[in-house]
Hints:
Elements: H1 2-23, H2 28-45, H3 52-63, H4 65-76, H5 81-107, H6 113-138, H7 150-165, H8 171-201
Amino acid sequence: MLNLRVRPALCHVVEPVADALLRLKVHPDALTIAGTVGVVLGALLLFARGLFLAGTVVVALCVLTDLLDGAMARKGGTAGPFGAWLDSTCDRVADAAIFSGLVLWLTGAGEDRVLAAVALFCLVAGSVVSYAKARAEGLGLTCNVGLAERAERVIVVLVATGLTGLGVDLALTVGLWLLAVATAVTVVQRLVEVRRQAALVA
């Protein structure tokens, strides 16, 4: 799982920035909301118009707030249930905006309804992946398995859009199909894992 590998490596960059923002009296929840608004605007205003390189830069920078707000909450002693809930909810909003922007482009000037359907599938299946984990944890189980968690999904789609913006024509097609398959596999992996754990406690 990429979360476990990438986050520790980024700590050396994230920690000083988090410290600086705390000195400026920025609240972690405000950063969470600001980052989400940035992703939504970048995706719906840029991706939807086919401005993939600019959209990728804007969305990627705003997605990084997902690392900063958690570090700020821990350092500032404000970590709690509401912050965790807000962060997860905003993640869903950001994901919806990214794929909605792509769907708007593909059903409009992009003129590729099949790929638009694939992008829509990625959005829906990604929501199922997140819900499966949340519901399992609500039942006292764990569900930390899967080929494509949120970090992986966001990286794949941003690499695809970024390469498309640089003129690599097939990047978006390959990226979305790859993501659709990986996300579907993750749903099945989580189903199997939760069924296994449920059988043990039955």
